[in-house]
Amino acid sequence: MADDELSRAMTLSWRELSKVIPWGDTFDGISPAGRNVEVERNYLWAAQDGGDILCEVAVYGGETRYDQGARARGVISRR
Q1: Burial tier of 43 (Cβ tally within 10 Å: 0-12, 13-18, 19+)
Q2: Among 3, 11, 51, 59, which residue carries the largest CB count within 10 Å?
Q3: How far apart are CA 79 and CA 47, in angstroms?
């Protein structure tokens, strides 16, 4: 599920994100197995301000299980 959410999160353009970075959000979701989960997306500068953007996604079963969650990350290139 983290990989699937990362695919969607990476559809935002560098130009759109560069105006609001650093930015993130968390929302409730249902996993493919039918479990309630929290989905967290974060957009941060990958190395330096104005460069590539690091996109991180975490999917976990509530605050107390954050460390056991699934994670995925990708880079949105400035080009």
Answers
A1: buried
A2: 59
A3: 15
DSSP class of 13: -
Q: Are strands 36-45 and 70-76 parallel, antiparallel or unpaired?
A: unpaired
Q: Give the dihedral sign, CA 64/65/67/73.
A: negative
CB 53 within 8 A of CB 76: yes
Return the structure tokens found at 60. 């976990």
Give the bridge partners for 23, in sequence order: 43
pLDDT digits 0-9 by tens, 17-52: 999 999 999 999 999 999 999 999 999 999 999 999
- The Cα 79–Cα 37 span in angstroms is 34
